[in-house]
Each structure stands twice: as C-alpha cells, then as structure tokens.
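Whether sequence alone determines local backbone shape is best considered at the level of individual chains. The sequence in question and its structure tokens are set out directly beneath this paragraph.

***
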Amino acid sequence: MTSSQQSPEPTGQAHGHIHSHGHSHGPAAPVSKHLRKVIAAVLIPFATAVLVGLAVLWPGGAPEHERTGVGFDRQTEQGTVVQVDPVDCKDVNAAQVPPTGDTSTPEGREAVNAQQGQCAKATVEVTTGKDKGRKFVEIVQPDAPRQLEEGQGVVVAYAPDAPPDLQYSVTDVNRKVPILVLAGIFALAVVAVGRMRGVMALIALAASFGILTVFILPAILQGSNPLVVAVVGASAIMLIALYSCHGLTARTSVAVIGTLISLLLIGLLGSVFIDWASLTGNTDDYTGLIHGLYPEIDMSGLLLAGIIIGSLGVLDDVTVTQTSAVWELHQADPKMGPRALYRAAIRIGRDHIASVVNTLVLAYAGAALPLLLLFSIAQSSVGTVANSELVAQEIVRTLVGSIGLVASVPVTTVLAALVVSADRPEEAAAPTGRGSGRGRRRKK
C-alpha cells in the first residue's frame, strides 16, 4: 500500500474524532423527524384550541357597576400632604368615649387612649381628578399604624354622597416610586445574569401579566366559567412563557406536554376536593364584596381557577428542569436508554420535589400568618383551625398543587426519556456509513 493510498486513513480518523468531540460538547442532538411530527400533532391542535378559547371567551372589558364605596370599590384620587401640625387629641375629638363611661371593653380603652397625647393634623391637597387643588384635613392618632409626613404622596378616597367636609379621606400612601425602583433593580439583575434569556423571561412575564389583566379577570367578571377561563388563560401563559424563554424545540415541547398533564390533574383533584369539602370560596371581605357586586360568579370555581393559575409558575420550573436534566444526561452518555435516563433523572427530580413542596407550603403559610396568629391567640386546637373554611381552603390549595407538582416529575421525566432516546437509531446509522466507506478504501 503506497503512501498516497494510506493518506485517507488518518484523515478519516481525524474526521471521526472531530465529529465525536462536537457531539459530546455541542448542543443536545435533535430528536427524530418522526417524533417531531408526533409532538407537533399533539401541540398544534392544543395551541389551536387555546387560540379558539381566547377568541370565544375574550371579554369586552370589565362590566360597569355602581360603586359601593367599600374597600377597593371606592373612587380614589392622588394627593399630597402639604402640612402637618401637632394638636391635642382631646381638642380634635379623636375618639368618642362610650356614653356609659365603661372602659372595661377593648373599644372603650382604645377610645380613652385615643384622647390622650398628641395627634397630627395633616392638611392634604388633592392632585388629580375634578377637584384638583382642593384641600382637606386628616387627623392621625398617635397609635395609628400609618403616620403622615409633609410632602408625602397619598391615595385619597372620594365619597360623593358625603357632606362636603367629609368627601375626601386618606386611605393609603403612594408607593409607586419605591415599587418602580425595585422593579427596575429586578429587571437589571435578570438581564445582567440571564442576558438574552433574561430579556425573554421579562417579555414572558409582561405577557403573562397582560393575559391575566386583559383576559382572565375581565372574562370572569363577565360571567364566564372561572375554571374554563383559568385553563385557557393558563395554557396561553404556559405556551408563551416556555417557548419564548426556552425556544421552539422538542425539549420545550416535552416540558409543555408535562405541564399540561399536571395542570389537568390539578384541575381534576381540585374540583373533586373543593366539592367534597364544601368549600364556597367566599371566606373574607374581599370575596364577599365580589359576590355582592357580581352574584353570578361561581366563587368555588374562582377558587379552583386560583389553584390552577397559582400552580402554573412552579410547574413550569419543575418540568423545564426535569426535561433539561434528561437532555443533558443523554448528551453526556448517548448510549443510555430510556430506562437508564429515567432512573438517573428521577434522582434529580426527588431533590427538586422535596424543595419545591416545602417552598409551596411555606409560601401559603407565610401569606396566612396573621390568620394563624389569630387562631393561636384564641387558643384553638389544630383540628378546629384546620376545619375552618378559611384554613381548609388553603390546605386544599396547597395539597392539590403539591400533588400536581409531585406528579409532574415522573410524567415529564418519562416523556423526556422516551423522546430524547428515540433518535439513537438515526445516530447509529451515520457511523456505520463512514465505517463501511473506510473499509472500502482499505480493500483498495
């Protein structure tokens, strides 16, 4: 064999080495064309159904109603505190002592305390609306949780049916500036660390918030079934968020399918246990106000819709993480079959389950901490606390969501392992061709 005849052999070896190196450290190998068609056959009808649902249920805006002047259902304007003067609480009649003079009750003691010490007389100027420039006086008691300072921005409520001197009152402080600054810091941190992925995540976040405020909330207020609206809206959020952040790939499609299956499980379990536990969804002043303004809204359905939407964010995290874990394991060892991939990835999933479930429970417990404190003050037993609808609602919300999260790990892992290992026959075919070519050159 001459040197010219031997030269193709090293070249072929070098080519094989370069191919192997690129495969091991490059992006994960794509799945087979057949499976891409199968995934498309599942996701395209699903995406079409979501678009049809959005079109059919799309609201024309929140329906009009006469304001009750209670809670959030008040007409509000912006204002500024222009002056604050100290004044004796007794002189401004900050609180009325009971006519009987009884101070043994909490109300009586609070009234006596309110008449002692220095109050603050705040002059507030309305800065928006038809009465812009109008001023009124707000008396702030020394033990009030919210104190006013000169130059502070406030939110004022307007009661048109009240006497002229009592039409305006301070309901809250203006927090727009610190919230906007914090949001800016958050956006900068996301972009600085995530770069282009961070930008896409912010775009997905804005789209999610847009669907929530423009579609989900008005559609529920218009009387559409809250569960159907939540499923359609959550599906739209899921498709936008996952594909915009992670790309239009088979890996993302597997995460979408895993999330969808888990959401269906959460919806089914939530529907069964909300009905079985006789949860009405009408448990506090806010839900009572909603029911009073829009009695046609199904409050138990609204509760189920909240469970589905609340679980979606954590589900996305779990399914994407599990899918990525399977893909990376396959890239590290392409010879691993679906069973070996599942066993390796599920070990990662178990750690994820433990942390996510604990996070979900603590998040709900933290939100309900004032309520739990009230039960503790009343010295109620654990059984009594758990049986109250207000707490039972959170227990059902937490457990149903957690079951869906736990189920999403094996479901997504199985799907990812089957999909990513399905392209092995195509990968095996290419080296065989190269090997047979080199064999023919040797025969020459």
